[in-house]
Amino acid sequence: MESLWQDLRYAARMLMKKPGFTLIAVVTLALGIGANTAIFTVVNAVLLRQLPYPQAERIVEVGATFSSGPLNAVDDPRFVFWREHQQSFEALAAHMPMGAGVNLSGDGVPEFVPAQRVSVDFFRVLGVAPALGRGFTAEEDRDGGAKVAVLGAALWQRRYGADSGLLGKTISLNGRSYTVIGVMPPDFRFTSAADVFTPLSPGTSGNVGFNLQVLGRLKPGVAPAQALAEMKLVGEQLRAAQPRLMGEQESVNLQPYRDNLTAQARPLLWILFGAVSFVLLIACANVANLQLTQAAARQRETAVRMALGAGWRRIARQLLTEGVLLALLGAALGLLLAVWGTELLTRLMPPNLIPRSEEISFDGRVLAFTLAAAILTGLVFALAPAWQAARVDVNSALKETAGKGAAGAGGRRLRGALVVAEIALALILLAGATLLARTFVNLRGVAPGFDPHNVLTFQMTLTGERYEMVAGVGDFLQRSFEKLRGLPGVETVAVTNTLPLDAQYNFPIELESKPGQITAVQYRTITPDYFRAIGIGLKAGRTVAETDTATADKAVVVNEAFVKQYLPESDSQGALTTRLYIGRMFGFDQPWRIVGVVADAKQFDLQTAAPSSVFVPVLQLANAEGKFQSGQRALKFVLRTAGEPLQSSAAVRQAMLEIEPNLSLTRMRSMEQILARSTAQRFNMLLLGVFAALGLLLAAIGIYGVMSYAVAQRTHEIGLRMALGAQASDVLRLILKHGLALTVVGLGLGLAGALALTRLIKSYLFGVSATDPLTLVAVASLLMIVALVACWMPARRATKVDPMIALRCE
């Protein structure tokens, strides 16, 4: 320890004696370590940190799979059967969002809050009990059970002032009275936003469609593989008991809840972490070159130490200590940059791009990573000067003039190798960033299939007894449309259940001509002017009409993709009058007749082709008693305006408040905002572009530093050449040749690396290949130009060497 302390003090003195070198090295390392820490903070929170529940590793998600695909949500009958026949779980629970939320009223101003319907064992599966009151009972989780609710702590504190007397009192949710029976702990977070929880009542609640996410807590000692084997057997039991319910390609699968939750974000995060690691490696190469320069200047000092009896291991330890101390200083500054960078990262991150983004924060693991990165980085870039010190020829070094230590061929080769590595890494980063930039440009040019300009959207969820009947819904729509059409600048008004590029809504269909062949398509409910409001063209037949009411024959409009997939023998005109069943497995036995075919429009994102879709009239969503389908009460309004749509937002809010003061208006956006948000590549491109620019800058600095040092070392040679008649152009060519040779080797290695590694981002690309030749040539050319500039500056300085001064110095 005494020897180590001595090394640390000496290292600190050496760094203070060279403030310029120290500052450059610390800033370079801070950029590399800070960027790595920022990205690792995200990776840690999303992928590595366990979910905030007791023994969260025992929580798994169970779902249906088709042909070994991803987990899918299920319907009530599947969940109830699984729950009653499984033996591997302490409890199995389901949850389902209540649309976009519920209207909370009764005390104060009506408010629209996110909510979840959950089954009785939901809180037991998560391992979290209410901080006040209790959870749900089996009697409450049945049809006709008591209307009860559990509140989130944030809502309880904000709206009710943390009043413990709220327990047992009633609140109004969607126009119905619910008794508050519990309040969750302040630190409780669910992966889907929720301020209110109500009983799900699966099996008898009228849930239609595959809307239930199922979670289970494994019993102690039960492995996931064991539970999976049992659940597959349960699935086969369900198929045998209800063959109509479960198709041939369907199976049951499960995954750890954290893994399934983060499955889509995992590849992107690891790619970004790999990219930022390249930046750190380039920074290490730069600092190693700086250290090599310093080591060359200290060869006489090293020789004296060795002459006095110091072994090369002792000298190497001193140099490694200096490297680690330098890296720790860089890490301290990098940690500050990481705090700022992480905050900026989360602010710029598109909504819903990365799950658990609200949990991104620094913890002990992040600090340990920063410390480990600093120590490892210090050792990596200090190895080069340590290796060079071990090769010092004591006799030759002692004969050198003080301060003029010879670089040596080995040192020159090592510095050249480091520059080659920097160029190769920079090219790989630039290639990835350029591919994403081209993807972004390509997506901007994709026709979405609808006209997003001058379109305003917002949502209102109909709640209360008056909207249980389709007649009440029709009356609300008529009054709303008349009021909105009368506003200045509003041209067309319509309603749908799901906007393009905003969400998905699958529903099972069955062609009358192909009984038993059930498949799922995108399901949209619309009013007559929807296609005109959103800007989708009609190809054949007619659109939804005012006469398509609950008492009229069932009419449906499909898109061209539907015709191509399910009616390949027909064209758009021939598809008319085809009959199909929508949701027949749920008891909707009346067939629908195709009355029109519309153009395809993007629904998932701009990269994915338009899916097969059906569009049904809102006012035909009624049962025999005239009751409106409860799952379709979250209405998305679509308004086409004459000018900037958001300028009409205030007038629209006021108009809807006059029509229905007890309902909240939410999610007011323009379609252009929705379209822009769907382009998540903007964020990926921005991040990778920043890393690539940083890598390019550091590589340019590295080339410049090596060439400058080479010129300084060859001052005597250059002076001698010029004294013998060499022209400035000859000297310029000599220096540039050396720099460009290193650049060409680096470009060759970088191109090989890019061809291999850019395939990792293949799934994020659109309209461009991962090995696109034009991109690789452009990036290589840019790096060549940067290298030329970095080499030209010291080469030009070499041409101005005075031969007499250069020769006299020796």
Q: Which residue ranges are poorly predicted, with pLDDT under 50 across at least 5 consecutive positions? A: 401-407
Shape: elongated
The biggest beta sheet is recorded as: 12 strands, mixed
How far apart the termini lie comes to 44 Å
Query: Could you report the average pLDDT, rounded to the nearest whole number?
Result: 83
- Number of extended strands: 23
Provide a count of the helices: 23
Structural class: alpha+beta
Q: Roughly what percent helix?
A: 40-55%
Helix-strand layout with pairing:
Blueprint: H1 2-17, H2 19-48, E1 59-66, H3 76-85, E2 89-97, E3 102-105, E4 111-113, E5 115-118, H4 122-126, E6 132-133, E7 148-151, H5 153-160, E8 170-173, E9 176-183, E10 196-199, E11 213-218, H6 224-241, E12 250-256, H7 257-261, H8 265-297, H9 299-307, H10 312-348, H11 364-390, H12 394-399, H13 409-444, E13 455-461, H14 470-485, E14 490-496, E15 506-511, E16 518-526, H15 530-534, E17 538-541, E18 555-559, H16 560-566, E19 579-582, E20 592-598, E21 613-617, E22 634-641, H17 649-659, E23 665-670, H18 671-677, H19 681-713, H20 715-723, H21 728-757, H22 773-799, H23 803-808
Parallel strand pairs: 5-10, 7-9, 16-21, 18-20
Antiparallel strand pairs: 1-11, 1-12, 2-5, 2-11, 3-4, 3-8, 6-9, 7-10, 8-9, 13-22, 13-23, 14-22, 15-16, 15-19, 17-20, 18-21, 19-20
Can you describe what's shown?
- The chain is an alpha+beta fold.
- The protein contains 23 helices and 23 strands.
- Strands 1, 2, 3, 4, 5, 6, 7, 8, 9, 10, 11 and 12 form a twelve-stranded mixed beta sheet that branches. A six-stranded mixed β-barrel has the order 15-16-21-18-20-19. The protein has a four-stranded antiparallel beta sheet with strand order 14-22-13-23.
- Helix 1 packs across helix 10 (312-348), helix 2 runs antiparallel to helix 8 (265-297) and helix 8 (265-297) packs parallel to helix 11 (364-390).
- The longest helix has 37 residues, at 312-348.
- It is elongated and about 105 Å long.
